[in-house]
TrEMBL record:
This is FAM3C protein. Signal peptide: none annotated. Coiled coil: none annotated. Belongs to the FAM3 family. It is found in: Secreted. The gene is Fam3c. GO terms for molecular function: carbohydrate binding. Residues 100-187 form the ILEI/PANDER domain. Keywords: Disulfide bond, Lectin, Secreted, Signal. GO terms for cellular component: extracellular region.
């Protein structure tokens, strides 16, 4: 009888211990689940209030049959320019395909696909290869240009005329160490609305010897047949 009583007591203690542990575990589980659900709700709220990101990081979405672009000139002779089209960075210092002078990216005006990227040294280089390159651009091609360091010293009238035919209005006034970005096209019938130009002026320059960076974004109309 005594042995049976002890067995009952042991079993009772075991069941009581198991019950207490299970209750504590459930409380912790409830607390953890509550924390998880609260965190998920906060994350969902944060996502709903976070502004949407558009291609190339532009401020608003482009309409249909338009290509998003964003570009910036170089910063003094330290940071190179950057050209992005349809969320594709075509030229940048990170890609290591930019250089002193005028940086050029060509894009297919129908598909938005990149065609070519090059830079031409307009300080210590020769303008002749740049002229030949400009002449070789096919109709319907989107042309994006950005200066770095100095993009004007070696420019001659022929080169300026060819760039003006792409839709530029500022190219005739581009001077030593001016900052300039431009987006036009071969075969364009009007002047391009996509152009920014800041003169090199010692009284207003942000950097010693160079003006501030110029940036530009927008939506390029797709070429229609």
């Amino acid at each position: 009888l005594t042995g049976a009583a002890k067995l009952v007591v042991v079993i009772a203690i075991f069941l009581l211990t198991f019950y207490v542990i299970s209750q504590v575990f459930e409380i912790k589980m409830d607390a953890n689940l509550g924390h998880i659900f609260a965190r998920s709700a906060l994350d969902a709220a944060a996502r709903s209030t976070k502004p949407p990101r558009y291609k190339c990081g532009i401020s608003k979405a482009c309409p249909e049959k338009h290509f998003a672009f964003k570009m910036s000139s170089g910063a003094a002779n330290v940071v190179g320019p950057k050209i992005c089209v349809e969320d594709n960075v075509l030229m940048s210092g990170v890609k290591n395909n930019v250089g002193r002078g005028i940086n050029v990216a060509l894009v297919n005006g129908k598909t938005g696909e990149p065609l070519d990227t090059k830079f031409f040294d307009m300080w210590g280089g020769d303008v002749a290869p740049f002229i030949e390159f400009l002449k070789s651009i096919q109709d319907g091609t989107i042309v994006l240009m950005a200066t770095y360091d100095d993009g004007a010293t070696k420019l001659n009238e022929e080169a300026r005329k060819l760039i003006a035919e792409l839709g530029s209005t500022s190219i005739t006034n581009l001077g030593f160490r001016d900052n300039w970005v431009f987006c036009g096209g071969k075969g364009i019938k009007t002047k391009s609305p996509f152009e920014q130009h800041i003169k090199n002026n010692k009284d207003t320059n942000k950097y010693e010897g160079w003006p501030e960076v110029v940036e530009m974004e927008g939506c390029i109309p797709q070429k229609q047949d």
